[in-house]
Amino acid sequence: MFKALSDPVRLRLLSLIASHPAGEACVCDVSDVGVSQPTVSHHLKKLREAGLLTAERRSTWIYHRIDRDVFQALSTLLRVPSRL
User: pTM for the complete prediction?
Assistant: First the structure.
């Protein structure tokens, strides 16, 4: 998961999806990240494979949603104990 998060384009995509008013977004909603549409699709696939996104096909579009449970687990994992 951390490897998937290490790419700046993927972080931007996650941010756009997380901040989308509907709570989910299709590739047409997040394609303005400075790379081509096929590259956006590639990065979305990597984020899905890492378990950071869930996806649902509706007709010809695939809608992506942040898996909040996974991010909560990552947040817990990264918490630094106060007694170092």
Answer: 0.81
